[in-house]
């Protein structure tokens, strides 16, 4: 693997899922692979799981890890040809090349503005690093994609499914803040690649990018959509058409135990209790959110392993 910016970078999804599950049995079996190699992780935004699980994954492979909270460094410029006489002190052209002197792999997290759709969809931060870095880049959640989370979710479904073609439903949920589309986008793309009966449910006005959802069934009746589901993946996202806006609070879309039924509850975390999902779901045996969080390590580890093997 040359980089991991999108799930398209995976050669075979069924194979990588099985390899990750196998790696989980003995996480230290490739502890020499990353010896004398360094992962530099760049965070433009907050993280708990991605930061710790990716660091753990790299260390399981014997890598050294350096972490930079980019907001503590010089203010970066991304536009070509700019007269840098305002707040930006360093251009990404130099920064990415400099970081490549210290790193064998660069992983980065950069959320969208949620104000400028065109700018966000250009993935200007991620793609600038892909363009100017001389080492492979891993996406730890960008404006439009969270491919490490999607791989994690695929691994979790594979481990916990009790039938060959489980019914999986992605449900929008309420949230007080406008959130990105990245997790939902990557989950939709991943489910489109798997042997699952997949559908999406959300209130009108929360349609995701139709180039991503394509012909996946969308039901605006949440309870009807979730009927007989095996996995219910809950996530908030802001409006895509009225870009970055909360078009309606729809608090009745909070997931309850009654609506979930016997399905397994999935969420990428962090989650707001009794806003997105009620306590009774999160505290029940149906919740697999901790299994998902655990699998973040093995998703990151299999990706880093494949990149290290290609260096
Ligand atoms: N799910 C996820 O990406 O968690 P963090 O934002 O805490 O990294």
Written overview of the protein:
- By secondary structure, the protein is of the alpha/beta class.
- It folds into two domains: 7-145 and 296-308, 3-Layer(aba) Sandwich (Rossmann fold); 147-292, Aspartate/ornithine carbamoyltransferase (Rossmann fold).
- Helix content is 37%, strand content 14%.
- The chain has twelve helices and eleven strands.
- The chain has helices spanning 13-25, 49-60, 92-102, 117-121, 124-132, 147-160, 182-193, 210-213, 222-226, 257-260, 279-282, 289-309, and strands at 38-43, 64-69, 76-77, 90-91, 105-109, 137-139, 167-172, 197-201, 218-219, 231-235, 264-266.
- The strands form three sheets. The protein has a five-stranded parallel β-sheet.
- The longest helix is centred in the C-terminal third of the chain and has 21 residues, at 289-309.
- The protein is globular, with a radius of gyration of 19 Å.
In terms of topology, how is this protein built?
Layout: H1 13-25, E1 38-43, H2 49-60, E2 64-69, E3 76-77, E4 90-91, H3 92-102, E5 105-109, H4 117-121, H5 124-132, E6 137-139, H6 147-160, E7 167-172, H7 182-193, E8 197-201, H8 210-213, E9 218-219, H9 222-226, E10 231-235, H10 257-260, E11 264-266, H11 279-282, H12 289-309
Parallel strand pairs: 1-2, 1-5, 3-4, 5-6, 7-8, 7-10, 8-9, 10-11
Helix pairs in contact: 1-6, 1-12, 2-12, 6-7, 6-12
This protein binds phosphoric acid mono(formamide)ester (CP).
Provide a brief overview of the structure.
With 311 residues, this protein is of the alpha/beta class. It has helices at 13-25, 49-60, 92-102, 117-121, 124-132, 147-160, 182-193, 210-213, 222-226, 257-260, 279-282, 289-309; strands spanning 38-43, 64-69, 76-77, 90-91, 105-109, 137-139, 167-172, 197-201, 218-219, 231-235, 264-266.
């Amino acid at each position: 693997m040359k980089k991991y910016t999108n799930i398209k970078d995976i050669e075979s999804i069924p194979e990588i899922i099985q390899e990750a599950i196998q790696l989980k049995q003995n996480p230290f079996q490739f502890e020499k692979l990353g010896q004398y190699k360094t992962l530099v992780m760049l965070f433009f935004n907050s993280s708990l799981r991605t930061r710790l699980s990716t660091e753990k994954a790299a260390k399981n492979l014997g890598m050294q890890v350096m972490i930079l909270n980019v907001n503590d460094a010089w203010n970066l410029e991304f536009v070509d040809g700019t007269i840098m006489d305002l707040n930006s002190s360093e251009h990404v052209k130099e920064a990415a090349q400099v970081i490549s002197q210290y790193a064998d792999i660069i992983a980065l997290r950069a959320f969208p503005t949620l104000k400028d759709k065109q700018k966000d969809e250009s993935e200007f931060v991620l793609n600038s690093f892909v363009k100017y870095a001389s080492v492979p880049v891993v996406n730890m959640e960008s404006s439009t994609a969270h491919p490490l989370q999607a791989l994690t979710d695929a691994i979790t479904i594979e481990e916990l499914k009790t039938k060959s073609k489980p019914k999986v439903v992605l449900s929008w949920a309420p949230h007080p803040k406008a959130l990105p589309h990245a997790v939902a986008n990557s989950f939709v793309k991943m489910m489109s690649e798997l042997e699952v009966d997949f559908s999406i449910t959300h209130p009108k006005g929360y349609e995701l990018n139709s180039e991503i959802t394509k012909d996946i069934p969308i039901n605006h009746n949440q309870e009807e959509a979730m009927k007989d589901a095996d996995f219910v993946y809950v996530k908030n996202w802001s409006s895509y058409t009225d870009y970055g806006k909360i078009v309606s609070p729809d608090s009745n879309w909070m997931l309850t135990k009654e609506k979930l039924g016997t399905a397994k509850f999935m969420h990428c975390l962090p989650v707001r209790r009794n806003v997105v999902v009620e306590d009774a779901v999160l505290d029940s045996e149906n919740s697999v959110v901790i299994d998902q969080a655990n699998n973040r390590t093995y998703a990151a580890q299999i990706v880093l392993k494949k990149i290290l093997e290609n260096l």
